[in-house]
Amino acid sequence: MILRFFAAALLVYAFGFLGFAVSLPKPLAGEPTDAVIVLTGGPGRIARGLSVVDQGLAKEMFVSGVDPEVRPAEFAAEFDVSRGTMECCVKLGYLAVDTRTNAGEAAQWLRENKFTSVRLVTTDWHMARASSEFEETLPPDIRVVEDAVSSHPSLATLFLEYNKLLAAVVSQGLPN
Q1: Separation of alpha carbons 109 and 38, rounded Å
Q2: 117-123 and 143-149 strand pairing
Q3: Contact predicate 149/36, CB 8 Å
Q4: Could you tell me which residues come within 8 angstroms of residue 67 by beta carbon, excluding any fewer than 6 positions away?
Q5: Sign of torsion over alpha carbons 122, 77, 54, 60
Q6: DSSP string covering 109-136, please?
Q7: Which helix (H) or strand (E) holds 39?
Q8: Are 118 and 144 in contact (CB under 8 A)?
Q9: Residue 99, CB half-sphere, CA atoms under 13 Å: how many?
Q10: Comparing C-alpha atoms, which of 111, 174, 143, 141 is closest to residue 32?
Q11: Along the 176 residues of the chain, how does pLDDT read in single tens digits?
């Protein structure tokens, strides 16, 4: 009986991983939001967020998880952002150190600015966990749309991220 239970659990886990790996989200086309949140840590994320602002699909961009050593001028130079765009439309967040604190830092910024819709930009393999953390943290009146940056993750990356997603889901279900 115990062996069947473990075999069934392993089967559910394996099929869950397979579903996760083959259903990575895609980039979002054309849907406007009040703001865009970009989580640091992967190639193409910041460029995608800047593209969204340049296209007029969001008024402002918040970059969460920026290294405290990075100054706005350095950020602008690194990503070829004009001074005008930096001043009006790009805000850097220095408090977050992981996906959960990205959500908390972004939630605070969204509340302070009274935004009601946000585009979440992160890498495709990271989107499920990031979206889960944001759903858990943001007030229910803020609409979140997912805008994934396409990548070609290794099997090891997918495996690690799937396990982090499961851990996040379990921890969100625990009482505070």
Answers
A1: 13
A2: parallel
A3: no
A4: 40, 94
A5: positive
A6: HHHHHT--EEEEEEEGGGHHHHHHHHHH
A7: strand 35-39
A8: yes
A9: 23
A10: 143
A11: 898 999 999 999 999 999 999 999 999 988 999 999 999 999 999 999 999 999 999 999 999 999 999 999 999 999 999 999 999 999 999 999 999 999 999 999 999 999 999 999 999 999 999 999 999 999 899 999 999 999 999 999 999 999 999 999 998 876 65
Hey, what are 163's tokens?
């396990």
Reported as type and span, the H/E element at residue 101 is: helix 99-113
pTM for this prediction: 0.92
Q: List, in sequence order, the alpha helices (H) in 34-82.
A: 45-54, 72-79
Place of tokens 């350095």: 74
63 touches 40 (CB < 8 A): yes
Within 13 Å of residue 63, how many CA atoms lie on the same side as its CB? 27
